């Protein structure tokens, strides 16, 4: 007959040994929040998972990684401030790379809701704040057109940051690291999200400030994190709601490309 395991005594402070009733009450009080915490974490995971894939594993390991990265994120209210762009970067960052005809007007309506998680960083506002019909396809087509028109300078392909979304890159021969860039994908300047139509771009500090101030986007939660290698000029661009707004977003993509190309003229 197999022998039963011998229980290992757990030493307790003398106060807890001598006062069993308070000890029982204390343990009960401490255990009460556990089911609530587990349920909150479960719901948070499900809401995060519903955003879809985006750069990190789309499972519990990706969720835990995101939770860890959240420690390095800026507060949500600070992501719409442009104070961080004052004096940021080098000489290129003090310049605007928007052409006059691509001026950025003030965006109509309020800002859409953006999920609080840093990865993936997604817009979740629905209804009129979501991407209009066909605009994601229009942006992808515009990126391809910009690339084909400037084959020695730019190229398109799947995002190295998002791993699936369409992206615009500076070609290897044209790349010069005199501007801000994402360390994990130094030649990537812009990508659009398949999930809901928002985008991310690396702009000059001057242009990033314009985009945020005029309501077209906000700073990424990890932007400016030296540990993560994310430049402070890394911004989310909200999903366009109509053809007119697609033109503004495409203009932002072109400005990102000109910034990375140090002002070279695009056809």
Topology record:
Elements: H1 14-18, H2 20-31, H3 33-49, H4 60-69, H5 135-149, E1 154-158, E2 166-170, E3 188-192, E4 199-202, H6 205-213, E5 217-219, E6 234-237, H7 243-260
Antiparallel strand pairs: 1-2, 2-3, 3-4, 4-6, 5-6
Task: Give, in order, the helices and strands.
Answer: HHHHHEEEEHEEH
Strand fraction equals 5-15%
Which structural class matches the secondary elements?
alpha+beta
Weakly predicted, low-confidence segments = none
**Looking across the biggest beta sheet, what order are the strands in?**
1-2-3-4-6-5
The separation of the N and C termini measures 85 Å
Mean pLDDT: 86
- Shape category: elongated
Radius of gyration over all CA atoms, rounded: 24 Å
Give structural notes.
38% of the residues are buried. By secondary structure, the protein is an alpha+beta fold. The mean pLDDT is 86. It has helices spanning 14-18, 20-31, 33-49, 60-69, 135-149, 205-213, 243-260; strands spanning 154-158, 166-170, 188-192, 199-202, 217-219, 234-237. 32% of the residues lie in helices and 10% in strands. The N and C termini lie far apart (85 Å).
Keywords:
267 residues; 7 helices; six-stranded antiparallel β-sheet; alpha+beta; elongated; 32% helix
Provide a compact summary of the structure.
The protein has helices at residues 14-18, 20-31, 33-49, 60-69, 135-149, 205-213, 243-260; strands spanning 154-158, 166-170, 188-192, 199-202, 217-219, 234-237. With 267 residues, the protein is of the alpha+beta class.
